[in-house]
Design brief:
By secondary structure, the chain is of the alpha+beta class. The chain has 7 helices and 12 strands. The protein has 3 domains: 3-130, 2-Layer Sandwich (wza like fold); 134-165 and 391-443, Roll (Outer membrane lipoprotein wza fold like); 176-388, Substrate Binding Domain Of Dnak, Chain:A, Domain 2, CATH 1.20.1270. The protein has helices at residues 3-39, 101-116, 154-160, 172-208, 217-220, 226-294, 299-388, and strands at residues 53-62, 67-70, 76-79, 85-88, 92-95, 123-130, 134-138, 144-146, 395-403, 406-412, 423-428, 438-439. The chain has a 6-stranded mixed beta sheet with strand order 8-7-11-9-10-12, covered by helices on one side. Strands 1, 2, 3 and 6 form a 4-stranded antiparallel beta sheet that branches.
């Protein structure tokens, strides 16, 4: 290759490297500019806090390959935890609360450099993708928690919560409707309680083995009421039906015992008859044995008599076994009666425990519903009148903001900024609640 060709090739390679370097610098400049735009969206640098969701990118320039290298493990969305730290791969916990995105970018680069042992500090880009929420309460239509948006003002926060609460929003008619519903629930609970008391009385009578049910005074005093009379009648019918069912089961078992007893008597009579036949057969066998010994009878006759005696003895043993089995069946039937009563008693005790538990729950629900009725008919309307006060009075705004380890209540105007984590309180003219210190309005624009 000639010197001129070599020189032109060298210049071409140098130009390409310069072009790549310019592209890399442009990418870095764009990324830094993006961070700058994000951090200057507010009038002053936004300070991070718990629940902020961050979009992080980390990269560095690799001179050896003339390219920008992105750290994939550190690229993505991360949330600032309740401790104020953000947990990152390769680095660990990085303090973020109270820092701007620019400060956190530098800190991430420094920690990565120290952790990996890099010669140069990598560059990091940090943006807030989702801000922590703000809260609003007081004289607004729908108080609660709402997502924060940069540049939010007090008036915009009130608008987000549905605007200022109006007289119609208190729903004085809804209190009447709520009262009617709760009073209906009270009547339902009262009927349920009477039904449970009737059931408890029936179960107590069954447990004691009584012939009749003794209903409590709460029921007897209303016995003329059709609904209560029907409850008592149904429990009485159920009481009689269950008692009859128990009696029928006992009668069936007793009938079985009676049949088994008759069977045993028959078997015993048969056993006595076999015993007499056996004795006669043995007597005849003794006579035949004497004749055989004298040569007056053949041995075959003796063999037949031996077989008859053995058969009688076997039959008597079979009858004795049948008698024993019948006696065992009688014992089992007696145990069945005991088990029947024990099971019935256990079932009754379980039902009583369940009924008494339901009575306790019913009492708790009744107390709660009575409180709701009182609230709907007395307390809530009084609170509405008290809170509304003079409808022509001016609205006041306050921002409850945490600054460091302290919480401040700051007087605010409609145009004052609201920051993530702030609590906006909207009220009619009046004193601050709970004795909180009111910070002059000039502090409302100061970010925590």
């Amino acid at each position: 290759m000639s010197f001129e060709a070599f020189h032109r090739a060298a210049i071409s390679r140098k130009s390409r490297r310069s072009g790549l370097r310019r592209v890399a610098i442009a990418v870095l400049t764009t990324a830094v500019a993006t961070v700058g735009i994000a951090t200057t969206a507010l009038a002053e640098p936004y300070l991070l806090g718990p629940e902020d969701k961050l979009k992080i990118r980390v990269y560095d320039w690799r001179a050896s390959s003339s390219e920008v290298h992105e750290w994939a493990a550190l690229t993505g969305e991360f949330v600032v935890g309740a401790s104020g730290n953000v947990s990152l791969p390769l680095i660990g916990e990085v303090p973020a609360a109270g820092k701007s995105t620019g400060d956190l970018s530098v800190l991430i680069g420094e920690k990565l450099q120290a952790s990996i042992g890099l010669s140069n500090r990598p560059d990091a880009s940090v943006e807030v993708s989702t801000y922590r929420p703000f809260y609003i309460l007081g004289m607004v239509t729908t108080p609660g928690q709402y997502p924060y948006k940069p540049g939010l003002t007090v008036l915009q926060a009130v608008s987000t919560a549905g605007g200022v609460l109006r007289v119609s929003d208190f729903g004085l008619l809804s209190f009447q409707r709520e009262s009617l519903v709760n009073r209906g629930d009270l009547r339902t609970l009262a009927v349920e309680r009477l039904g449970l008391l009737a059931r408890e009385a029936r179960l107590d009578a069954e447990l004691q083995g009584s012939d009749t049910i003794t209903f409590p005074k709460d029921l007897m005093s209303q016995a003329d009421t059709p609904q209560v009379a029907q409850m008592m009648k149904e429990e009485q019918l159920l009481f009689e039906a269950r008692k009859q069912a128990l009696r029928s089961q006992e009668d069936a078992i007793n009938q079985t015992k009676k049949l088994l007893g008759s069977e045993i008597e028959s078997l015993k009579a048969k056993s006595q008859s076999l015993q007499r036949q056996l004795e006669l057969a043995k007597e005849e066998l003794d006579n035949v044995n004497g004749l055989v010994s004298k040569g007056l009878a053949v041995a075959s006759r003796k063999l037949a008599l031996d077989q008859n005696v053995s058969q009688f003895e076997s039959n008597r043993l079979d009858i004795d076994l049948l008698i024993l089995r019948a006696q065992q069946d009688i014992s089992k039937a007696e145990r069945d009666v005991v088990d029947l009563h024990n099971k019935r008693r256990n079932d009754i005790l379980t039902e009583i425990s369940d009924v008494r538990g339901k009575i306790s729950v019913n009492a708790e629900k009744t107390t709660t519903t009575q409180g709701l009725v009182y609230n709907a008919e007395v307390q809530a309307p009084q609170a509405v009148v008290s809170q509304m006060g003079n409808l022509n009075s001016k609205l006041t705004f306050a921002i409850i903001r945490r600054v460091g380890d302290k919480t401040q209540t700051i007087e605010a105007n409609e145009a004052d900024p609201v920051y993530p984590g702030d609590v906006v309180r909207v009220e009619r003219l009046g004193a601050a609640p709970n004795g909180q210190e009111i910070v002059p309005h000039s502090s409302a624009s100061a970010q925590p």
